[in-house]
Amino acid sequence: MFAICQILQNSWMAANVDNPQVSTLQLIVVYMLIGVGSIVFMLIRSLLAVAMGLQSSKYLFSQLVNSLFRAPMSFYDSTPLGRILSRVSLDLNIVDLDVPFILTYTAGATINCYADLTVLAIVTWQVLFVAIPTVYVVICIQVVN
């Protein structure tokens, strides 16, 4: 929805900037309302990413603590507590900060890419002669690696 609002915002401005039937105030108000909708959807996306990151962190933490409490004493005899604490804090830091950010960025960039490609295909259909083989080659490269 965020990408759709951005496309609508740009389309509205491009289509009506030279239209004499649309006043400047109406042009700006509609542009601003679409922008506010875009901000709301971006806020919802961010809150969902934080909520999912929090749930995954809680699950990982509970599994990790459960495993540490059930570990045999020989594990604690051979492994220093500093190493255990360092490992736990590093893993939780990655799950808390890096995973939600990377997931949100990847999903957003992918959606924006497909939205841009769709707009280009609608406006200039000849771009499909280049885009379709490029997408095919990229998918083949990803499958090989």
What's the gist of this structure?
With 145 residues, this protein is mainly α.
Task: Please estimate the helix content.
Answer: over 70%
Distance between the termini: 32 Å
- Any idea what the radius of gyration is? 24 Å
Total individual domains: 1
Global morphology: elongated
Largest β-sheet summary? none
Ranges where pLDDT stays below 50 over 5 or more residues in a row are none
Short descriptors:
145 residues; mainly alpha
How does this model look, in words?
The chain is mostly helical and 145 residues long. It has one domain (2-144). It is built from 5 helices and no strands. It has helices at residues 2-16, 24-70, 73-78, 81-123, 128-144. Helix 1 (2-16) packs antiparallel against helix 2 and helix 2 runs antiparallel to helix 4 (81-123). The model has no long low-confidence stretch (mean pLDDT 87).
